[in-house]
Design a protein that fits this description.
The complex is a heterodimer. By secondary structure, chain A is mainly alpha-helical. Chain A has helices spanning about 10-35, 60-65, 70-100, 105-115, 120-135, 140-145, 165-190, 190-200, 205-230, 235-240, 250-255, 255-265, 270-300. In chain A, helix 9 (about 205-230) packs across helix 13 (about 270-300). Chain A is globular, with a radius of gyration of 25 Å. The two termini of chain A are about 25 Å apart. Chain B has 15 helices and no strands. The longest helix of chain B has about 35 residues, at about 70-100. The chains are: A mainly alpha, B mainly alpha. Chains A and B meet through helix 1, helix 3, helix 4, helix 5 and helix 6 of A and helix 1, helix 2, helix 4, helix 5 and helix 6 of B.
């Protein structure tokens, strides 16, 4: 081993190249990380974020008194659980079926079309949903309900009972293609030898799926499952903000930690409550990610982050 | 390929049926949106949005065309932000990733670890918002739409770094170094051209992110002259009269006659049209990007 002597002729240009990226991470990631201390401060813009006075746990007290904590954590976690479980089952089913399609053209068309919704922004999706659900002009109220013999119009954006289903459906509509593609890549990666051997032994298609495909997918399923559990305290802000149009009467079933933090910060200008909720999210999120990673290391080491 | 057994044939048929239903479900909302946007406002008001409108009309599109100074401007902002953000992002990511590959430069490992940490822990919206608005001062500047998405995530950097390690022959770099080539030369003349597959994939994902972004606008932009097309849609969600209220009236349009029921659909159609046209050609690369990004998370 040569003694460590910095070759500046090489190191200097490398540092220069890395500088913009490093600066970016400092501003975009590290300053906000340090900034979570504002959850314990009474923010004063004139003094600046870091020089504002401390106020102990007051912000958390405000937050818990608001009565929203249980609702937002319940919604965030429950929606995640449903999305992870049912979403995975749907995605794997579609991926397996997709893998069965032998016609290259059909395969390409199916993939392209099913992935299309994923390319739409949540704002655009909210317009698509609105065309169906709008109170006065929506397709459901004007065509489907009369066809079923009903006569009253449903004010969807005020009626919370429908929203768990709507949100699940919309989430799957947009995300299914994305999840399916990931599992499809894993299904394609399974060695054809297994199926060949199974066919020679007279295994049926169904047996091939349950005895070869699913077990072979297990590492991918477990890894993605654990990764998603690590994100349990985070929700897709666009889904929960844009699709219900941030409608107040629906908050009981649509409010997640992310929409609460946004509304408290931007609409009520309430930094103390939003920073306290954000703090809880960051810390619990961190604990979940670390535990998830620890679990992945045990299950399939090569998929762990570190 | 042998002859299909009866069971396999049934299986094939089931797959086709299920996937066709899936495709129809994926397409139907777009159909409703587009069909209803061509409906006359009076018809849509009376009978609602239909898959086959009873009265065809271009009035919503005529209104949009008359307001093109607003909508065209929003399009312009979207394009500028997408182009600058994607180009700048690719540069930053690849330069950083190239540095991370240099094992003989001190400090590189520490930087790598620091990037990993950002994937595990983040400050969340409130501090990020306060830093960007009070320290970086991006509010109501075009940078408010560009900077927050610039590197996408630390994961992107690591993705590119892994490509550099696995797909660019070390001997090539060494030979160039022995020939006395500087690091900038090596990076721009050897590494970048050899990395077009990964840079194209990362760039495509970045471009889609920028094109679709409305969140940063929600946080940092309140001046309508900086609205992107997504922000315009977001604004019209809150206030359908937005276009009419801001009409410049140069063309002498009577803004009180805005086709308010169909206009919101028509403007959404105008916003998604470029994606619908371009997407089929990029689908393959897009799917590739998803697979690369997802599993090794």
């Amino acid at each position: 081993m040569k003694k460590k002597k910095i070759r500046w002729a090489k190191a200097l240009p490398i540092y220069i190249m890395m500088l913009p990226g490093v600066l970016y991470f400092i501003v975009n990631n590290y300053l906000p990380m340090a900034g979570i201390v504002i959850a314990f401060k009474k923010i004063n813009y004139r003094k600046g974020i870091f020089k504002s006075p401390w106020n102990g746990l007051d912000n958390f007290q405000f937050l818990f008194q608001s009565g929203s904590v249980v609702t937002m954590i319940r919604n965030t976690v429950l929606y995640n659980l449903v999305f992870i479980t049912l979403g995975t089952v749907l995605a794997i089913t579609v991926a397996i079926l997709m893998n069965e399609i032998r016609s290259k053209v059909a395969n390409r068309v199916y993939q392209t079309v099913i992935l299309l919704p994923y390319l739409m922004s949540w704002v655009v999706v909210s317009y698509l949903v609105y065309a169906f659900l709008a109170g006065e002009n929506g397709y459901v109220n004007n065509t489907i309900i009369p066809a079923l013999g009903g006569s009253t119009k449903i004010n969807f954006y005020q009626e919370k009972i429908f929203w768990p289903f709507i949100l699940f459906f919309v989430n799957q509509w947009k995300g299914l293609g994305f999840n399916m593609i990931i599992y499809l890549a894993a299904v394609i990666g399974i060695s054809p030898d297994y199926y060949e051997a199974a066919r020679i032994d007279g295994a049926t298609k169904w047996q091939q799926i349950t005895k070869i495909t699913i077990p072979q997918l297990l590492p991918t399923i477990i890894t993605l499952f654990i990764l998603n559990v690590g994100r349990m305290f985070y929700s897709d802000f666009g889904l929960f903000y844009q699709i219900p149009k941030n409608s107040g009467p629906l908050y009981d079933v649509t409010m997640t930690i992310d929409t609460f933090v946004y509304n408290a910060l931007m609409n009520q200008n309430n930094i103390s409550m939003s920073s306290a909720a954000g703090f809880i999210q960051s810390i619990v999120g961190f604990i979940l990610v670390m535990s998830a990673n620890g679990l992945i290391r045990k299950v399939s080491k090569e998929n762990a982050m570190f | 390929m042998g002859i299909l057994s009866k069971e396999e044939k049934i299986f094939q048929a089931v797959a086709h049926v299920v996937l066709t239903i899936g495709c129809i479900l994926a397409i139907v909302p777009f159909w409703l949106l587009i069909a209803a946007s061509f409906s006359s406002d009076a018809y849509a008001t009376k009978y609602g949005y239909k898959f086959i409108p009873g009265e065809l009309s271009l009035e919503a599109y005529r209104f949009i065309f008359n307001q093109w100074d607003q909508i065209g401007r929003a399009y312009f902002i979207t394009v500028i932000v997408t182009v600058i953000g994607t180009a700048l992002g690719i540069m930053l990511v690849s330069m950083l990733a190239y540095g991370l590959v240099q094992k003989d430069v001190p400090g590189v490992k520490a930087i790598f670890l620091a990037i990993m940490v950002t994937m595990l822990f983040n400050g969340g919206l409130v501090p990020t918002y306060l830093i960007y608005s009070n320290v970086v001062h991006v509010k109501n500047t075009i940078w408010g739409l560009i900077l927050p998405n610039l590197l996408m995530s630390g994961f992107t950097v690591i993705l590119v770094k892994n490509y550099f390690t696995t797909s660019i022959p070390g001997e090539l770099i060494e030979a160039a170094e022995i020939d006395g080539a500087g690091q900038f030369n090596i990076f721009f003349k050897i590494v970048m051209p050899l990395s077009t597959p990964i840079l194209a994939t990362v760039g495509l994902m970045a471009a889609v992110t920028y094109w679709n972004d409305w969140q940063n606008g929600l946080y940092y932009i309140s001046e309508s002259k900086l609205y992107s097309i997504q922000l315009l849609l977001n604004e019209m969600n809150n206030n359908i009269q937005y276009l009419a209220n801001n009409a410049s009236n140069l063309a002498g349009v009577d803004t009180s006659t805005m086709p308010s029921v169909t206009i919101r659909l028509a403007i959404a159609v105008v916003a998604i049209l470029p994606i619908l046209l371009v997407y089929p050609f990029f689908q393959k690369y897009f799917a590739k990007g998803i697979v690369m990004g997802a599993v090794k998370g």
